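note to self — DONT lose this again. spent like an hour looking for the file last time. sequence + predicted structure for the chain T wanted, 172 res
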Amino acid sequence: DRVQVDDLAQAVTAELEGVGHLAQAAVAGVERVFPPVVDRGRAVGDDHLGHAGPVDDRADPIAFEPKLAMSLNDLSLRLNDSGDSANAVRAIEEAVEIYRRLAQTKPATFEPHLAMNLHDLSGLLYIIGDSNGARHAIESAVEIYRRLAQAQPTTFEPDLALSLQLRKVIAG
């Protein structure tokens, strides 16, 4: 509800003071993109965010990072849709950095998100003409998806297939 959105916006602002221009842009975009983020989170359940049940983000800043990374991913998509590919790349790079850090502590929870964001990053890098960066990102995504698909083929083979297709496109 609106009170929770306002509380989250205040918590986001408090956490990101002094973090930098991109993070501040993400905070400014949270209210614009919040309804899709909320719907996306509800569609996959609370465990999508790495926790079960409500968490007071102000009391536990680490609990906020998955939400920030997801918001940065959504912001990246919207920036790219509006023609701002350079800032879209910056947003998704920050999301990748956050998911990479989270995956070190909870790989089962966050490696799928890291792989998805690496896949998205590779596509954006390819669009802006950074073929080397695109190849590096897609190779990392493929490596993670291969590992995930070995453990859960039904869940992750489709994602692996999409990343393999993108790798082929990037390779030319």
